[in-house]
């Protein structure tokens, strides 16, 4: 099976793969896709101790780990690893079972065609923060945005596939969807505009991105993933309920099923491990939008949450 997760940021956010109900069940037949900001090729000179340690750990897992690049990668080093053909597309081989999915390539994994286009603008350093010179090659690289050739490679490959793939994996979103998630805080750039065109011209079953550090279904078949590990084809709302790994966060607006009614509300409190009495799945305290109700705040189990609402 194929699983998808969000940014690992080197050793910072990779622990989501440890002692996890999903990864614990994964076998050598499985593939884990990370939607950019892999971060274990990060030091600007060489593989350092921490990178070696985690790459070795990943290489020894039963499954194969593959990743799109994000913006937090050391691109000159990433591009220096050997290139090989893997499942119909080109990859950089970081370790035998840790592969970088190159930009604009289409892979065929377990019968599904998957288009991959990494890259994004950094919003914590570099030109967006106005400190380009000081950080070039030191935690920020201009190659974070795909080159014209890489983008053209993507368009050529898509055209050769009749502009139809099963899945799309990127680090950032098309401009329109980025605006929905960031409410205008992140400005459009060459890659979000390029993905906007692809979104309009390519047919796909589901699109997954990382970058925004949230787990959220932005559209019917567009999902941003961060901490969760979901099966490809699933939206966050359809993915398995996992004790200790809640799908929703404080302040999320949600549609819930409560005593036979569908109600809208805001998550006021998250209980990842359940309540004192019930610890079979995450629970939430929901403040209902309908203020006229007897109980303004209700406690529900995660399976009672129908979906996250983008309306607040
Ligand atoms: Fe990130």
Written description of the protein model:
By secondary structure, the protein is an alpha/beta fold. It folds into two domains: 2-231, Metallo-dependent phosphatases (Purple Acid Phosphatase, chain A, domain 2), CATH 3.60.21.10; 253-309. The protein contains six helices and 18 strands. It has helices spanning 49-59, 75-78, 132-135, 148-160, 175-182, 190-201; strands at residues 2-5, 31-35, 64-68, 83-86, 89-95, 98-101, 105-109, 112-117, 167-170, 206-209, 216-219, 222-224, 230-231, 253-258, 261-271, 283-288, 297-301, 305-309. The chain has a seven-stranded mixed β-sheet. Strand 11 (216-219) and strand 12 (222-224) form a beta hairpin. The longest helix has 13 residues, at 148-160. It starts with a strand and ends with a strand. 39% of the residues are buried. Fe (ii) ion is lined by residues 7, 9, 37, 70, 72, 211.
Feature tags:
alpha/beta; Purple Acid Phosphatase, chain A, domain 2; 2 domains; 7-stranded mixed beta sheet; 6-stranded mixed beta sheet; 18 strands; binds fe (ii) ion
The profile of the biggest β sheet is:
7 strands, mixed
Under the CATH scheme, the architecture of the largest domain is 4-Layer Sandwich
Hetero groups: fe (ii) ion
Give the rounded overall mean pLDDT.
94
**Total E-strand runs:** 18
Strand line-up across the major sheet: 4-5-6-3-2-1-13
Helix content: 10-25%
Shape: globular
Task: Give me the secondary-structure topology.
Blueprint: E1 2-5, E2 31-35, H1 49-59, E3 64-68, H2 75-78, E4 83-86, E5 89-95, E6 98-101, E7 105-109, E8 112-117, H3 132-135, H4 148-160, E9 167-170, H5 175-182, H6 190-201, E10 206-209, E11 216-219, E12 222-224, E13 230-231, E14 253-258, E15 261-271, E16 283-288, E17 297-301, E18 305-309
Parallel strand pairs: 1-2, 2-3, 3-6, 8-9, 9-10, 10-12
Antiparallel strand pairs: 1-13, 4-5, 5-6, 7-8, 11-12, 14-15, 14-18, 15-16, 16-17
């Amino acid at each position: 099976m194929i699983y998808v997760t969000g940014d690992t940021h080197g050793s910072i956010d990779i622990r989501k793969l440890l002692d996890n109900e999903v990864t614990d069940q994964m076998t050598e037949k499985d593939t884990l896709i990370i939607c950019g900001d892999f971060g274990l090729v990060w030091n600007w000179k060489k593989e350092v101790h921490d990178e070696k340690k985690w790459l070795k750990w990943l290489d020894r897992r039963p499954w194969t780990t593959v990743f799109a690049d994000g913006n937090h990668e050391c691109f000159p080093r990433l591009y220096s690893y050997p290139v090989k053909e893997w499942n119909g597309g080109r990859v950089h081989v970081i370790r035998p079972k840790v592969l970088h999915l190159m930009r604009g390539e289409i892979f065929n994994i377990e019968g599904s065609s998957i288009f991959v286009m990494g890259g994004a603008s950094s919003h914590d350093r570099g030109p967006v923060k106005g400190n380009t010179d000081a950080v070039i090659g030191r935690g920020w690289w201009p190659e974070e945005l795909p080159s014209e050739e890489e983008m053209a490679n993507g368009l050529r490959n898509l055209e050769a596939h009749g502009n139809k793939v099963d899945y799309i994996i990127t680090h950032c979103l098309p401009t329109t969807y980025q605006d929905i998630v960031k409410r205008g805080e992140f400005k459009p750039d060459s890659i979000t505009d390029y993905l906007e065109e692809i979104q309009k011209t390519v047919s796909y079953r589901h699109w997954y991105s990382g970058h925004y550090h949230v787990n959220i279904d932005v559209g019917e078949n567009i999902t941003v993933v961060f901490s969760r590990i979901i099966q490809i084809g699933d939206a966050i709302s359809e993915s398995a309920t996992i004790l200790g790994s809640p799908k929703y966060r404080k302040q999320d607006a949600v549609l819930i099923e409560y005593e036979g009614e569908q109600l809208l509300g805001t998550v006021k409190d998250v209980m990842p491990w359940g309540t004192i009495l019930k610890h079979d799945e995450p629970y939430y305290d929901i403040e209902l939008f309908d203020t006229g109700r007897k109980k303004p705040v209700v406690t529900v189990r995660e399976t009672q949450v129908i979906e996250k609402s983008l309306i607040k």
